[in-house]
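Appendix B.2, paired examples.
Example (i):
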Amino acid sequence: MSKKNKNSGACKPKISKLGATALVVILGVLSVYAGRFIVKHNREKISAQGEKARAKGNPRADFKIVEYIDFQCPACAKGSKIIRDYVAQYPTRIYVEMKYFPLSQMHKFALLACQYAQCAARQDKFWPMHDALIDDQSIWDRMLNAETMFREMAGKIGLDKAALDACLADKETEKVILSMKEHGKSLGVQSTPTYFVNGKMSVGIKSLQAELEKYFGPVKSPTPPVVSTTAASPVPSTPKSAPEPLHLLQTPARQ
């Protein structure tokens, strides 16, 4: 049935209360799914941006490493330095991607360190932050409040403070990190550092080093430090005294 509009002469459909209720329910369901889609899309966008920033080397390299890292893990720090040396010598043959696996039960600053690294990744400065966290791990690991040092690192590598604070306050930052950790668990990751070398899981730095040496051989020794060419002032030698006569060095026999 249609009801004629007296003013316009148009026919206006008559909607029952049941139909109106159904329409509201449908619109509500659609809005929920739309909201979830937007959140998922934004999270994937953030994750994709971070993924690109958290990788280095040649994407077409024949040797690819995916590492699940806890920045407060001492073995992770050693492993990162090993990878750094190999990448420096074989920049076109190695591709490295970092994923987060904070062991918060063991390391109280692990999640916070990942948050700073992820926020640095949003500003395309993941690797400078990564290196700062790794190189000074033995210092901030013992601090009561490591965030003070994290902020100093962020300033030194040139992070925008306003963008950093907004990123740290954004709940999506933590969700991306924990989502990465859950994905690692689904692949069998239980501890750090865990690496996937060309898809093969390698747990611990000894396993990683064995794979690297098998493929590339031992890493070459780093360039020795430059020795100063400034001649040191000669130290005047003390003239040796003449040896004592033999009869004075002998112990006299008892009578």
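Example (ii):
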Amino acid sequence: MKSYSFKLSSNAVRGNNVNQQLYRWRILVTSLACLFSLHVVVTQAAHAGATRWIDIKVHNGHLLIESEVAGISGYSIIDTGAQLNAINEAFIEAEKLSFKKARSVKIRGVVGESLRSTYREIPVVVFGAPLNFKRLVEIDLGSPEIQLILGASFIENYVFQLDYPNERLRLITRDSVDLEAIKNVESKKDPEGGSPLVKVGLSEDTDAWLTMDTGATGGILIDRDLAGRLEWIDTFPKLESTVSGVISSGQMEHFNVPGVQLGPFRIERPIVSIPVFGESFELFETRTPLGTRISSRSTSKGLLGYNILKHFVVTVDYKAGHVHIYPGEKEADESQTGD
């Protein structure tokens, strides 16, 4: 589920009540020798043409990197589910900034759509390098410490390797790794929205293409109709919650299912979220998009987010739609170890 609500001054990041009550994980690895070989290939290639590991913050399911806008330091979200780059309205207001305006655009979130202002010629620095965005859409991200959402035009420039357990990432040049040849997840580029799609086995006889969305804080989000065809709605105990997105809010139901398959990995008891009965989510509407996630021509049936990705090192070529994953392991903090 998409939710942009932040309070970075807290000492610890705590899971929401739904996750605390529902979530219990176990990943079953199949064909271990083959997977280890693929991991070695990806790692060796990454070292050959990659940046050093860059520390990030994982906060409420979002990947935050340090950024600088108009000379002001803060954090920005890496969001593989966003086709547009955006700037936080709360940040602009808190810092009393003024930028040149461009034409307004209609954007769609998981819940609702809205006409928003866009800005141009905004000085931005990410990874120590100045960036030039053609336009940044204004949206409300809550805390003014969050400056930007970095979407398609930023992410597609490199192959990204996201190490969730160790809260770090690195950028890999495309000429140093053939991700199409070694990917272990059936994946492709959404022909309409452009985001990476991954095939997820929801049951023994039902697969679904889901948008791999690093900006989504939940596990799996699908339409209520699909959950009904899988006979999940009346089978598993559910909890209900209100979910706030960048445009509006909506009601969702959440429940555990026995397991899903992502590439060679069986993921047990993931959380699945669906709209409550009668709730209409923009994500599942069929209409022509402007800056949208899923459109009438998209083959995506929902979102795959943080509560599944958090256990993996994910290598993604956004531009081509290729994805490789392997289970990550939290490394010991050398600064706190000794003889």
